Every structure is written in structure tokens, then in C-alpha cells.
Amino acid sequence: MSPSQRAPVVLGSVQVQPVFSRRLIAAVVIFGIGMALLVAVATTLGLWAGRQEAISGAEAVTRNLARSLTESVERSINSVDVTLASVAELASEQGLAGPRPDLGAAVVQRLTFIPYLRQILVVRVDGAVLFDSAGQADGRTLDVAALLAEHARLPRPLVVGVPIDGRFIGGGGRASGLKSIPVSRAIRAADGSVLGLVIGALNPEYFIASFQGIEAESGAHTHLWRFDGLMLAGAGGGNDVHQEIGRDNPLFTRHLKDSEMGTFTGPGGDGVTWITSYRTTLSWPLVISVGISLDTALQSWRHSVETIAWPVATVTLIVLGLTAAMAIVLRNRGRDEARLRLSDMVLSNVSNGVTIADAGARDLPLIYVNPAFERITGYSAQTALGQNARFLHEFDPTQEGLDDIRAALAEGEPVSVVLRNQRADGTFFWNQLSLSPVRGAQGVVTHWVGVQRDITQQEEARAALAKAYDDVAHYSEDLERFSFVLAHHLQEPARQMRLQAQVLLQRIEDIPESGAQQPAELIINAAKRLVEMLRDVQAYLAIERQPVAGGTASSESALAAAVNRFVNVEVVGPVEVARGMLPRVGVPQKYLDDLFEILIENAVRFRHGERPLRLSVGAQSHVDGWLFRVEDNGIGIDSSYHERVFVALERLHSGTSYAGTGIGLAIARKIVEAAGGRIWVESDGTSGSTFCFTLPMPPSGVV
């Protein structure tokens, strides 16, 4: 049977019989997975038990360290409290109101036995320093309001303050990188009122050195906190990463509210999971926390996991791989059948028409069409199958796009075109056709897949939109032409109005009592302004009617002409004109002259009444050609009007204050933009304005 006589194959109609039953495939898979799971579960349980043992060991280490450190810190603080209490008693006996107490020998003796207590001060409630063992604040005044507030707030004799920078309390200098922890005890009168404070400066390095030794030995991070979450000393010293996150630490946000001692595992506010044990001192609002990161605690356990996991994982993967290979072999045929049915279901439900042509058969006959193709074209599958798809456009074999299809078929490349096709009922429609080759294992094209989309409505809408654009362009051109002619013809009536008003004014000069002189002058001025406005409108519209790009112009000549025309020293007063580089540009000379005249006239018109006019004009090379800057020291332009000044007929001042039609800068903008550049203004609103604009360079070879 020849290929043309072979019955077409419809996807989804091919019957596929699995070689093996699903029960056999399921049994093989279950057995293989079960063996792999058995090995994996046994190994996992053993490793999990080892992990829990490592965590329990780390918890025991942190608890023991926290207990011993808490006792040590409490003994240290007790010694400081006893020392400060004795100094407070001596100071109270000698009195705080009279001469400074003589405490030197007694304090030195006490400091000898407490090396971590750097300094002792005696301060009255008014801040006067009566005694300073370090001599840093002796005779000065300290701000003790915060410490007094702490004593009033906390019903404890000894108050631990906020760490401060420096080795000592008081004095102007601060030792770089050093801190002190202030502790204070109140000196009270018989009635309980506070007469002064005994303040001690604890050296946090005493605690830090102990903490760092513990960290080096066990890897545990140790910190001393106030009960409110303020860190007093940590193993990291002044750069401890927990310095700023104490109050956000779960130790203070949750655990201390439940118990004054304990152990927990969780994030420590720095993104690291810690095993932390904490204890509070019995007599002081202090907390000791000892933490070992979970990574450190599990380090040796992870080494064991790596040693055991690889062999177990290898065995498990081998079992799973053999199981998967056998299952794949057994279910390939069933999967192929499912894919065929799924493909047929998808192709039958898509909204676009889909065709498949056999590239191995003569004349590329269609072997598949989906229901959407039948709905779009009106041809049934029985009619279309076995034919070449050209029957849809054979009424016009020369239309655009068919050559692209022929070239794509010859080269084996995908292509997308828009064709005018004919339905079975004879009506026409626009078809967006995409052809894609399907290649076999050897890279040879075996089939062509075509996707048809009916875009008749889009094409009709596009044609209507194009016609509407043409109509708008035509109407716009007519309106512009009419506006130009109207502006031209209205100038003559305006001139006649002015002329006749001047004649009328001459005739009534001898009759002053008539009161007609003022209306006549107003008519003359209005007619003059109308003539100027019509002239500027005509110039504004003329830019659209004549080309601006091309040509070569001298900016130096344009500036000279504008200055000669508008800078009248007798009227304006002394004028300073600073000229920078003035290059030649790629626009007609007339438009460059008009542009400079508008900007120079604008600078003269809006000059400042209290300072001589100063102009600065120059250019520099720019990515868009030349960048010009025309700068003046006039009245300036407020930033809210930097865009409005370029709008036609937009005036920022009344006609009585400053003359003009409000079209000049709009013309300037139109000239610059028509030449392919842009223009803008820079001004602070008081000290003048700078108009910046870009223009193209002249053609190459033109100087």
C-alpha cells in the first residue's frame, strides 16, 4: 500500500497493551522501597539516639558552668557591696555637708583586696564629688540623677548601672576600647533620705577574662546580664555580637518570666541556635548565661554521621536504583499509553487549531486535526486528513507569507505568518499560522505541527484603527494649516484697529474734556499686543511647516545678532556679556538666530531692577551633540514654574509688569525639539535663570 493510500493515524486511537500487570510492578516497587526504608530507618534511629546524647551532654556542661559561675559572681558582688557599705558608713560619720571627708587611706586599703574594683567615688545628691580614689573627678560635679532614680526605683542597697566607656568614672578622657560597670550604694540620713552615693567602677575585663578561658576550654559562650537584658560582660569583650540583642534574647522575653534558672534550646537573637543554661544570683538582679551552639555540640556527632551515612546511603541508593530501573522497564509501555491519551485530550480541548503533517510522506499530508481546527475552518477531520493544508488558501497562491512557509519547509526551521484562508462555506478569515518541525532521534524532520489562530477580529480592528489614525493626522494637518492662515490674515485687521485708534487719538487731543484719550490708548496697546501675539503664533506654527534639522549655523553670529538687537545700554544700563565656547551646530541659521533672540530678549525683559544685567553664554560637548547654557542674573523662576514657562501663552507675570505674549519660550522649545534636542531651565527663583538646551553637531567635514 502506498503512503497516499495508507489509512491516517489519529492520536489516541492506537491501542497499547502493557507487557506486565500493574500488580507485578507494584510488588517490585514495594519490595525494593521496603528494603531501602528498613536500612534507612534503622540507621536513622541510631543516629538520632547519638544526637540526643550529644545534646544532653552539652546541656549538662552548660548547667554545671552556669552554677559555678553564678556562685563566683555572687561572691565578687558581695565583696564589692561590703566595701561600698563600709565607705558609705565612713563618709556618713565624717559628714557630707562640711569639708571633704578624709577617706584616702581607708579606700586604698579596701581596693587592695578587690583588684577588679578600679575606683570609688563619694558624691553628694547635688552631684558634687567629695572623694575620688582615682583622682579623675575629684572636685568636679557629676550628673547622678539617673543613679538616684535607680535607687528610688529598685528597693536594693546596691544598684548595678549601665556600662560606660572609659576606664574610670568622671574626668574628660575616655580610654579607647575600655568600659566600666558603675555600682552604687546610697548614703542615707537617719530619716531614710538619700544624702549621697558611694559609686564604684567595676572592671568588666575581670569577668571577660574568666569567660574567655571557659570558651577556650569548652567552647561555651558565657555572658553576665542585668535582669533587664543589658549585657555587662561577655566572652566577646567590647565587640560581643550579643551586645545589642540582649533584650530581644528569648532568655529575657520568655524563659526568665517562667523560672529564675533553667536550660533551653533555641535561637539566641543572632540567628544561631544555642543550648543555653542560665541562673540568677540570689542577692542581686544579675543573670549568668552559658551557651553552646548547637553546631558545636553536634560537631563530633556529625563526624560520626558522615562516617556511617555514606555506606548506608550507597547501599540504599543501589537498592532504590535497581528498583527504579526495573519499575521503569515494566511501566514504559503503560506510560506511553497514558501520554498518548493525555496528548489527545489536550489537543482536543485547546482553543487553537492544531494539525500534524507527515514529513516522510509525499506532499506532507495531514495525519491529525483537532476539533478546534474543524470549528475554525468548517472542514471535518474526514475531509482534511490526507490532504496538504494548502487547500485552505489555494484560491490565492501568491499571497504574502507563502514564500516564508516554503523557505521554512525547505530549511527545516519554524515559521509564523498571517494568511487569508477560506472556510468550507466560502467565507474568508485571517489565520495566524505557526509551523514547527518535529525531529526524530537522528535529527531528521519527521512531522510538522501547525497551530492556527483565527485573528479576523484583530485584523479588522487593526485596519479600522489605522484608518482612524490616518483620519486624525489628516484633520490635524488641516487644523494646523487653517490656524496658520488664520493667524496670518488676522494681523491686517489688528493693524487697522491700531491705526484707526491712533487717528482717533490725534483728533481728540484738542478735546481733553471728552475723556476719550484713555480708551483710545488702551485700544492701541491691545491692538499692538494682538499683532505681536498673532505674529508669534504664526512663527510657532511655521516651525511645523518647515524643516529644522540639517544645515549649519554659527552660534557666535546668532549671539552677536541677538545682543545687538535687544541689549540697548541707554535703556537697560551697563551689561556684562561673558562668552564661552560658541561652536557651529547642525540647524539652519535662521532658527538658531530666532532661538538666541528669544533667550536674550527674555533675559533683558526679566532683568533685576537692583543689579546690572550680566549674561553668560557658552557650550560644551555632550552625548547629544552640543550642550548650551544661557545664564542671567535676573529675577529668576520659581521651581514650580520650570515646566510651565515653555507652554504657549503661559505668562507668569501680568502684562502691566512685563511685556510679552507668552509664546517665545514655547517657540524656543519647538525649535530645539524639532532639531532633535531638548531644553530646560535651572533657577533658584531669586538669583537668575539658566536656560540649557542641546543641539546636534554639524555634519562631518563641516567646520
For the CA atoms, what is the radius of gyration?
A: 48 Å
How many beta-strand segments? 23
Task: Indicate the low-confidence ranges by residue numbers.
Answer: 1-17, 482-487, 653-660
Q: Report the mean per-residue pLDDT as an integer.
A: 79
Measured distance between first and last alpha carbons:
81 Å
Count of DSSP-assigned helices: 16
Helix fraction bin: 40-55%
Category from helices, strands and their pairing: alpha+beta
Q: Sum up the overall morphology in one term.
A: flat
- Main sheet, how many strands, which sense, barrel? 6 strands, antiparallel
β content, as a range? Answer: 15-25%
Describe the protein's architecture and organization.
α11 packs antiparallel against α12 (517-545), α12 (517-545) runs parallel beside α16 and α15 (589-605) runs antiparallel to α16 (664-674). Strands 1, 2, 3, 4, 5 and 6 form a 6-stranded antiparallel β-sheet that branches. With 703 residues, this protein is an alpha+beta fold. The chain has helices spanning 22-94, 104-113, 145-153, 204-218, 250-258, 294-297, 299-349, 371-377, 381-384, 402-411, 456-507, 517-545, 555-566, 569-572, 589-605, 664-674, and strands at residues 117-124, 129-132, 158-160, 164-165, 179-188, 194-202, 221-226, 231-234, 261-267, 273-280, 286-293, 353-358, 366-369, 415-422, 428-439, 445-454, 553-554, 575-579, 584-585, 613-622, 625-632, 679-683, 689-695. The longest helix is centred in the first third of the chain and has 73 residues, at 22-94. It has 16 helices and 23 strands. β9 (261-267) and β10 form a beta hairpin.
